[in-house]
C-alpha cells in the first residue's frame, strides 16, 4: 500500500484526476455481451469495405513493415491534399498535412502545442468527453461555451464565446458537425470565429471528423475554406466515420505550413507515425471510396428518420433531428441523473446508451444514441428505450430523486 501511494504521488495532479468517461463507464461492464443492442459508441456495424482492406493486406504482403516519414507516407499526404482540394476547391500543400495515427492523437498534439499551466482554453459543448481530458492534461484551465437548443435546433452564440475568452486564452476547440448534437457551423460563423482567433493569437482546433456525414449537402463547411495557410488553425479529420474505419485508428491534420518542422518533431515524439499498412488502406479509401461515403450517408439518413419517427413528439422526450453526424441527443423530461438512467436501461432492457452528463456541464437530462447501427437493431433499441422512459417516469422511484453527484459517486 505504501509503495502504491508513493507511485501515485509521482504523477502530476492533472493525470491523477483523470476520470473514466461516462460512455465507457456504462459500456465496459457488458462490452462484448451479444444480448446488448449497443448504441453507445460512435460506430455502426458495417465492416470496412473489401477494397480498402485488400490495399492494407497487399501492403503487408509487399513487405511494407518498416519506418516511414513520421508525418505519413508522401503518397497518403498527397492523396489527402487532392481529396480536400476536390471537395472544397482548395490548393493545400502536402507540407501542411500530418498523419500521426488516430484523429484523437491529432487533437492531443494540437492541445500540447498551445497550452500549459497558467493558460486557458475554451471548449464548445456538448463535446466528446475525452476532449476535455486531453485539454486538462496540459495543465490549462478549461472554460465551456454551451450550445443551446431553440426553435431552429442547436445553435452556438458566438458573442457568448467571444465574451468567455480571457487574456490568457490560448486555444478554442469546436467540433462541427457536432458529436453529439448534430449541429453544423455555418461558413460565416466560421469566418467570424477564425478572425477572432487570428486577432487574439488563439489556436483554433477544428474537429471535422464528421465532415461527410451531413444530410442536406455533400460536405459540411470547413474552416479550410476561409483560412490562409499560416492562420492559427489546426483542422483534425480522419477515416473512421466517412469510410467505416473506426478500428484503423487513422486520421490526419491540416496545420499552418510555417510549422511543418515542429509537427514532424511532434509526430516523432507521440507516435513515430501511423501504422504503415493502414496508411495504404487510407489511400485506397480516398482515391476509390466516394461510393462508400455516399452509401453510408444514405444508411445514416435512414437511421435518422427511424429515430425521428420514434422520438419526435413524445411527451416525455424532447428531440431535434440532427443536421449532421449520426447521433441523437434527446432530453428526457424529468431526468436528473443520466448515468443512473443509462445503467438502469442497460440492466433492464439490454440497450446501451451514453449518459449526457459526460458531454459537459448542464447536460444531465440528456442521453446520446448512435443511429449508425443496422436498422433492425436500431428499431428494437428505440422501442425498448421508449418503453423504459415511459415506465421510469410514470412511476418515479425514490432512487430517481437521489442527487446525480451522489449516484455517480456510488457507481
What does it look like?
There is one protein chain. This protein is 42% helix and 15% strand. By secondary structure, it is of the alpha/beta class. The strands form 5 sheets. Strands 2-10-9-8-7-3-4 form a 7-stranded mixed β-sheet, with helices on both faces. Strands 12-16-15 form a 3-stranded antiparallel β-sheet. A two-stranded parallel ribbon has the order 1-14. Helix 4 packs antiparallel against helix 11 (276-288), helix 5 (74-88) packs parallel to helix 11 (276-288) and helix 12 packs parallel to helix 14. The longest helix is centred in the last third of the chain and has 22 residues, at 290-311. The two termini are 24 Å apart. Mean pLDDT is 92; it is low at 396-411.
> Major sheet, described briefly?
7 strands, mixed
Count of helix runs: 15
Strand percent estimate = 5-15%
Low-confidence stretches: 396-411
Give a count of the beta strands, DSSP E runs of length 2 or more. 16
Outline of the structure:
This protein has 411 residues and is α/β, with parallel strands linked by helices.
